[in-house]
Amino acid sequence: MLYALLCYNNEAAVCGLSKEEDDAMMGRVRAAEEKIVAKSSFGPRLRLMPTTAATFVKAGQDPMVIDGPFAETKEQLLGFWIVDCASLEDAIDAGRHLAREREFGGIEVRPISAYLPPSEAK
Amino acid sequence: MNDLSWIDQALSAVRPQVVGALMRYFRDLDTAEEAFQEACLRALKNWPRKGPPRDPAAWLIFVGRNAGVDDIRKRSRQQALPDEEVLSDLEDAEPSMAERLDSADYRDDVLRLLFICCHPDLPSTQQIALALRIVSGLTVEEIASAFLVSEAAMEQRITRAKRKVAAAGIAFETPSAAERVERIATVAAMVYLLFNEGYSASGGEAHIREPLCDEAIRLGYLLLRMFPAEPELMGLVALMLFQHARVPARLDAEGEIILLDDQDRSLWRGKLIDEAAALIEKAARHSRPGAYQIQAAIAYEHAKARQASDTDWSAIGQYYRMLEVLSPSPVVTLNRAVAVSKHEGPAAALDLIEPLAGPLSGYFHFHGVRGALLLELGRDREARGAFEKAISIAKTPAEAAHIRRHLDQLQLRVVGALS
To answer: Which residues of chain B neighbour A12 with C-beta distances below 8 Å?
Structure first.
């Protein structure tokens, strides 16, 4: 079975970390990952840029693109795509295609800051 | 993490909105700060036991408000409110608090808090010190060390600044859209000044002052989260991130500044550059260019060049031209001239800067750039004059050393010509 592990935290606190604190936090994350690969293997692992770098494409026939606010708290994360695009505009276009297929919610376009490919299966 | 640093991080992350909301409630900065302190103490007591509340800001505002009211009542010898043990379960009160916090009030609270620090009668260093104390919650000791003054002197400076702010009166009504835009611009300028306080440091001071850059970036993010559709705030954060990305490469072993052209670019922090690039791309969608966005775009051109010789000076020249139109200043023209010299040659650049001789007569970089252009054109005697002028007004040993290298080059030419 494939599982997605989604990381939630207070962005204001994490963005406020100094380089040293951030490195220390990532060090702990890597150590935890070491324990995970003892039993399981990883698909891609990634770190997202903060929401301040994101745009939001609202659902609908003629999707509106806004800088924020993003999904309503009553909406849940249902899935995601990773796309490789030459520009933000292309990524938003991809979001538009998906946003047109729905009446509610929308597609958040969030740049990825770090990407680790799948690990070797044990 | 098994220590309590998570509480400290959580408390400092929400400090601006909590103090901002408490100030709106009490209409007084000191009372708001004391109430926040009290709420933090109670958080330190309660959170380890019960776990953090769902909405830490709402919890702190609620508890801080009660503590402040309690304090005011005590002072007026009225009956005290029940203490937090009785009020301890905030679950019922929290949702409504949180709802109100989501509204525009909350961002105006934080903006107000930052804006009062930018009182025009306060010199910029005092504005910055006040913001670090009130908004960021740094201790006087931390601020004093970053500004390289004694704690007592900084204490006095902040107290005086606070008194001035209080005497000026604070506008508590919700700002109009135009006022809000104005406030954002004022506050953004203060944040960038704060960044430069940290960034321009060199020598032994550099390490001590770097936290000022971290703090400026933190405040930039805070503004951007509150006003996510303001392209100039995206530009401001991007600009700071681009510059901050160069930190590992910009000082040599002696702590002297290494010029952009000579920096080891492999040391630049790619993560910050990527994020800054994402921000200016997002800002560009608004087609509302501003000074921060353009400066960030210039920084991006530098960031894109693997080595100094790959730099697209023509693009940079065009950005400086835009900047000249948007916010004309002799220093901007001087910078454009540097870009022009790289892709059109020294003669065109020299024409551009000759009219600046008056306004920039006391500006080190003007004489340095002029000397370098003259040197390139082979006008050695005039170049020497410009370099000597530059050295006489250099502010740091690094600036003087840079010019001395040019003078040495001149000297070599003379020797070469004679031999």
So the answer is: 13-14, 221-222, 225
